[in-house]
Amino acid sequence: MMARDGDAVGHPNCVTIRAMFGFRKRKGKGSDPEAPEEYQPEGAPEEASEAEAADEAAPEPKEEPTEEPAAPGPSPADEDEGAEKKGGLFGRLRERLAKTRSSLAEGLGALVLGRKEIDDELLEDLETQLLTADVGVTATQRIIDDLTRRVSRKELTDPQALVGTLREELTALLAPAARPLTLPEDQEGPFVLLMVGVNGTGKTTTIGKLAQRYRAEGREVVLGAADTFRAAAAEQLQEWGERTGVPVIRGPEGGDPGAVAHDAVEAGRARGADVVIIDTAGRLHTQDNLMEELAKVRRVIAKQLPDAPHETMLVIDGGTGQNALSQARQFNQSVPLTGLTVTKLDGTARGGVLFALAAELEGVAIRFIGVGESAEDLRPFDAAEFVDALFEE
Question: Residue ranges of region Disordered (predicted)?
């Protein structure tokens, strides 16, 4: 029996990529060392003024110099505004993306330190930095080409403005892919999500977190355990079902996954469920026979509901870098994808792969990112929020 896991982690060889991609010939001068972060001491507390004892009944009151009233501080509304960014969920996101921020954003600041102009050497160093951070060849070329045009037109001349401009470029690159998964309110029959991916990406856990999310929104959910190959898969999904109060449709171990998918959709229709989420066995994108099995599951679902599955979501491990991009390409060729969930971004410096995914998989949305173990760490993907978390101090 063919193994269904074995996701090999690959990382592009930067030198090889640059050679075949035709990047600029490097000058002899090395890049500047990374500058240490400058310590910003907190402002000293304002000195408390001594209380003035003014006796209103005194016949000859002394004239005391009155203190100027302190400038009004920020109102509670002002303090609350942006609290999500500086703390709370945004702060948690920024903390969890620390390794990617270190490999990408902080390195860029060191590149421009002390530079007087934007020249070929600086742009070449920027290329290297982006590739090393797993931004990918296609996305890197697009960014560098646009920056080069801006420099040639004198629209961008100050090296210190380069990081801010790059931040805008990265946000614009991600924006088309950042499309939330919206469930229709007036659909006849349940919304069917088919979850695919290799073993070890957190696919089944992602399904459980999605079920928890939708239950919290007041939706009725049914789970289908169509991973009949891995012995613990159905049990793991059953645990999530019990935790979230969601029914799980199972079949015999080694049984037909198409039959389980069929039964799950039927159960969803009979119960009036809003959402049916179907787990499938982990498989490598190179295993043609197993990819055909996945296509069969899709055909079974399509016979039951028009346009179903309404979402085919690939779950990929962000820590595998460019190998995640390779998986996404292959899955998209065999089973057309509509969405991605990129997991395990909290433990890797390779989060730049999201830019590669957005650049190369046009039409496939990045729905969620995983930045931790809890249910709230599965976050709907927001392009501006993601880039802000990488660049904001």
Answer: 20-89
